[in-house]
Design brief:
0% strand; mainly alpha; 7 helices
C-alpha cells in the first residue's frame, strides 16, 4: 500500500499526495468542513443555555475535549498539500471554511479550558487534569496562531501559513506528549 502512494526517488515535498488513500482522507476532510461549521455553530449557540454543564459534568467536558482533537485533525486534512491545487473559487471557500472552523473551535476551546480550570480549582490538580490543560493550551495556541496568520498573511499565502502553523503545533503536541510520558 505504501509503495503505491510513495515514490522513494522523490523527496517528501515532491511526493504526489493526491492519490490513493491520501486522496480519500483529504477529500473526506473537505467534505466534513461545512458540517463541522454547522455543528460548531450549534455548540457556540448552545453554550449560554447550558453554560455550567461542562463545569459540573465530567462527561460533557470529555465530549468537548474530544471534539477539539477531531476538529484539529479535520483542519489538517482539509488543508491542501500545495498552494493553488484547487480551483480558485474552491480554494477561497476552503480557506474561509478553515478559518471559520478554527475561529469557532477557538471559542469552544477557551470555554472548555475555563471548565477544566474551574474543575481543577474545585477538586485539585490531578494528572488527568494537568494533561488536559496542556493539550488544551497547545490546541488554543495553535488555533489562535492559525487565525492570526490567516488574517495577517491573507489569501495569497494561506496554504503555506497553515503548514507553518501545523509545524509549530506539532512541536507543541510532541513536547507536551514527551512531558506527559516522561516528566509526569
Amino acid at each position: 500500500a505504501i509503495r503505491s502512494v510513495y515514490d522513494p526517488d522523490r523527496p517528501p515535498l515532491a511526493q504526489h499526495g493526491g492519490s490513493g488513500v491520501g486522496r480519500i482522507i483529504f477529500t473526506a476532510g473537505r467534505l466534513f468542513l461545512p458540517v463541522t461549521i454547522l455543528v460548531l455553530a450549534v455548540y457556540v449557540f448552545a453554550i449560554p443555555f447550558k453554560f455550567w454543564e461542562p463545569f459540573h459534568d465530567r462527561s460533557v467536558l470529555i465530549v468537548y475535549n474530544t471534539l477539539l482533537f477531531a476538529v484539529m485533525a479535520l483542519i489538517v486534512t482539509a488543508t491542501p498539500l500545495r498552494p493553488h491545487s484547487l480551483a480558485p473559487h474552491h480554494e477561497t471557500l476552503m480557506r474561509r471554511g478553515i478559518v471559520a472552523v478554527a475561529s469557532l473551535t477557538l471559542l469552544v476551546s477557551l470555554y472548555a479550558m475555563a471548565a477544566v480550570l474551574y474543575r481543577t480549582a474545585q477538586g485539585g490538580l490531578t494528572m488527568n487534569r494537568l494533561t488536559v490543560i496542556g493539550w488544551n493550551t497547545v490546541n488554543i495556541a495553535t488555533l489562535a496562531l492559525l487565525v492570526f496568520r490567516q488574517a495577517r498573511d491573507g489569501p495569497a499565502d494561506w496554504v503555506a501559513a497553515c503548514h507553518r502553523t501545523f509545524r509549530v503545533g506539532l512541536v507543541g503536541y510532541a513536547a507536551w506528549t514527551l512531558f506527559v510520558l516522561v516528566g509526569i
